[in-house]
Amino acid sequence: MNLNLQKYSHKRFNILTGEWVIVSPHRSKRPWKGQKEVVFEEKKHSYDSTCYLCANNIRINKEVNPDYKDVFVFINDFAALQKDSKSFEFNQGLLKAQSEQGICKVICFSPDHSKSSITKLFKSRINTQRACCF
Ligand SMILES: [Zn+2]
Q1: Contact 79, 70 (CB under 8 A)
Q2: For residue 59, how far is its CA from the centre of ligand 1 (angstroms)?
Q3: How many whole angstroms separate alpha carbon 79 and alpha carbon 7?
């Protein structure tokens, strides 16, 4: 089987620990602006035109976020797993791998860009529970 493991999400068997580990090679394509350490409390705006998660903005896959006013949930553009990925098994030398499928979603807890994820998590707990139960 001619299989490019760099193309598909899969799990690999770690012969040292006896555990399976999820490998998502396409995640390196995710946009990342680099980690920024904030030394002082910076005043953030409630909207950022360059943010992939803010309402009405274009995500990296060219989809436009809706004008959401509450919790917004969507399938991750660079998900660790895909639901329709190819099924395979690979066993060659020390490398043992199997396909893995799944769905990864992003939850925006608030349309307010200025709130940190943790702040949004606690303040929007009820809305998040509602969003997760559809
Ligand atoms: Zn934002």
Answers
A1: no
A2: 11
A3: 13
Q: Which of 5-19, 32-46, 51-65 has the lowest mean pLDDT?
A: 32-46
- Segment 70-127, tens digit of pLDDT: 999 999 888 888 888 889 999 999 899 999 999 989 989 889 998 865 554 555 555 5
Distance, in Å, from the CA atom of 68 to the CA atom of 62, rounded to the nearest integer, reads: 17
Å from CA of 11 to ligand 1 middle: 32
CA of 61 to the centre of ligand 1 (A): 16
List, in order of start, the domains of the chain with CATH numbers.
10-27+47-132 (3.30.428.10)
pTM score of the predicted model: 0.66
